[in-house]
């Protein structure tokens, strides 16, 4: 019998502050119970297996694929002299604003370290090596994605400081979180670079004012969450939505989904993550959530209704 190491890592949504968090604003994000699951089998292999929602693929250890490069980097760093069989399955859309690369990096670090050293890796090790994978994929990320999938719950985050505060209770338990996949795909790194260029082209005072405004919106939103004042929090999300439109991360289809969500009775909706495609996250009354979900699915959109994930039962 071969030894098998299993693990899973959750997806995330950014509720407030994406893009601006790269430039000094705080941001709010949450881990949700959609997972990337992995198995490492103590058996030499010449490939890994990736399973996505709509297809699967085998990737050779001889390829120049970014995931393979990262695995080889870990094997070399830890002086592992064999290439194990690794199977990975995503239960949520990838390249869609849900932190798939951060979750994948954390998962791979855990699987290989647990297999080779016989113990769970400490958080700082996951941050260190998982961060390298994020840099390989995105260039210069803020770190919010990796921090969210590692910590779980709802976090207030600042680049360079990490978690400033955390909520470890499901304050959204009486409302529905709805994630709608636009099916449009884009490169997070390219979108971040585009926004960075745009902000640099602005007058310095205007740029700093925008970042400051977003930070104030995040502050207002966090205070609202801490006091369980969800209507006030939805107002902050709505304001963030319009600022993201201003910096150009929306496309027509994303805007249409947000407007449709609101017209059908949802509380609030906005893009999550880099934008340009990917997912919309919204909140709605539980009494109409099924109606909303059915409506978007009939239009051909993949829809998910997760809960906040706190990591209390992580394997």
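Q: What amino acid sequence fits the structure above?
A:
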């Amino acid at each position: 019998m071969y030894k098998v190491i299993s693990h899973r890592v959750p997806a995330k949504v950014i509720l407030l502050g994406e893009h601006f968090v790269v430039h000094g604003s705080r941001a709010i994000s949450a881990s949700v119970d959609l997972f990337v699951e992995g198995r490492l089998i103590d058996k030499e292999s010449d490939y890994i297996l990736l399973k996505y929602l709509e297809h699967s693929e085998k990737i050779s250890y001889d390829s120049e694929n970014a995931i393979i490069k990262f695995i080889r980097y870990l094997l070399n760093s830890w002086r592992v002299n064999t290439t194990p069989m690794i199977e990975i399955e995503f239960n949520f859309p990838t390249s869609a604003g849900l932190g798939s690369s951060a979750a994948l990096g954390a998962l791979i670090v855990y699987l290989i370290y647990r297999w080779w050293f016989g113990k769970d890796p400490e958080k700082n090790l996951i941050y260190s090596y998982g961060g390298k994978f994020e840099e390989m994929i995105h260039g210069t990320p803020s770190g919010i994605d990796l921090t969210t999938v590692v910590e779980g719950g709802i976090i207030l985050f600042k680049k360079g400081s990490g978690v400033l505060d955390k909520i470890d209770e499901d304050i959204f338990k009486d409302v529905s979180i709805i994630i709608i996949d636009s099916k449009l795909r884009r490169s997070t790194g390219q979108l971040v670079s585009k926004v960075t260029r745009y902000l640099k082209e602005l007058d310095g005072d205007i740029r700093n004012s925008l970042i400051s405004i977003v930070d104030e919106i995040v502050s207002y939103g966090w205070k609202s969450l801490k006091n369980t004042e969800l209507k006030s929090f939805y107002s902050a999300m709505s304001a963030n939505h319009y600022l993201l439109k201003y910096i150009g991360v929306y496309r027509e289809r994303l805007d249409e989904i947000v407007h449709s969500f609101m017209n059908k009775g949802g509380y609030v909706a906005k893009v999550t993550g880099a934008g340009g495609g990917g997912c919309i996250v919204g909140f709605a009354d539980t009494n109409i959530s099924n109606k909303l979900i059915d409506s978007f699915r009939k239009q051909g959109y993949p829809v998910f209704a997760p809960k906040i994930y706190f990591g209390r039962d992580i394997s």
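Q: And what stands out in the fold?
A: The chain has a mean pLDDT of 93.
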